[in-house]
Amino acid sequence: MRVLWIVNTIFPAPSEKLGIIKPVLGGWMYGLAEQVAKQAGIKLGIVTTHSSSNFIKMQISGIDYFLIPCKDKTKYDVNLEPFWVKICEDFMPDIIHIHGTEYAHGLSCIRKFPNLRYIVSIQGLVGIYSRYYFAGISSGEIFTNITFRDLIKRDTIFQAKQKFANRGNLENEYLINSKHAIGRTGWDFAHVKSVNPNINYHFCNESLRDGFYTAEKWKLESCEPYTIFLSQAGYPIKGLHKVIEAASLLTKDYPKLKIRIGGVNIISNAKIIDRIKRTGYGKYIGKLIEKNKLEKNVLFLGSLSEEQMILEYQNSNVFICPSSIENSPNSLGEAQLIGVPTIASYSGGTPDMIESGKTGLLYRFEEIEMLAENIRKIFSDSKLVSQISENSIISASLRHDREINLEKTISIYNKIANS
């Protein structure tokens, strides 16, 4: 069986061969690809886009990699269709597995070869995400904080929301023209079925990055007290502003409270170039931090490698996923697998990952008072913390079991190939 993956990032092996920076995102796919490629009777190919002008094919460790030149994968590009003819005639796939519906480059394959066997893995659903893009920030606040960078790039928060909505139209085309989908939450099941009631929905959890299975587990006695970790916070959906508002209710009792955030420093304005690059959301967050006198409590960590992420989970007192909408964030799964106590907003598919009070704590996204109270519980109740840590490790170990998820993936491929 010849299985062709369509993905959104250049994998580490071809990145290294091309001499470019290895990706930070998409790590959960790399281990699964290696496992699938080692299965008897399966040949794996992987297609993605790159910014060069050349079509590239290479074979590494038994996997065929194809890199298609593409300037903007958020928009449909008819010029990609000849590359798909070349790839499909070369690889002759029995199944095409599309990982994520967020980008348009896979649609040119579907339109060119509508009768091939496609299966779409649901990551997020950006069209649905657009409904929650403002994440409780008023239109007045958004307008007031528009920056020079936003105007030049035509990328205000208003416009970013619309871009998500526009991409949602392409996303629906994937679902309408695919007979099969892989999902993992009640939330994505409901939304996929609402678009295509006839689609065959297959449940399969995701595996995580290699290091999280062997890393030392979190310990209360060795973490840094009163430290909150967020894996990312670059735009409103990720909910950093709600964590800052909640933190303002806690600093009187916990003056040493720290919020550590993975990703680029969106509030930096030390240099002219920083001020030029600053986004409207970054400006809003900067004002919010200043208003609540939290300048010494908030730290952006920059882009984090797998090893650095593990250390942050191990060292933090609590991991928070405060998003206005998510499907099933892998960062939450990683935190649970490490054993750090977790708090998440009750949104999208996160309730499928947390049994509140047992494997983490849940709250309504808008309720900063409930978020603050949940943080207080983690900071003050060592018995609850120990229970959550132990239970989350057990739950996440089963959910993200690599052998179970591999077996399920291969079973789905066989079912589709024999249909």
Automatic annotation (TrEMBL):
Name of the protein: Glycosyl transferase family 1 domain-containing protein
Pfam families: Glycos_transf_1
GO function term, MF aspect, one: glycosyltransferase activity
Organism, as annotated: Flavobacterium gilvum
Record PANTHER family: SULFOQUINOVOSYL TRANSFERASE SQD2
Span of domain Glycosyl transferase family: 223-392
Cited InterPro entries: Glyco_trans_1 (IPR001296), Glycosyltransferase_grp1 (IPR050194)
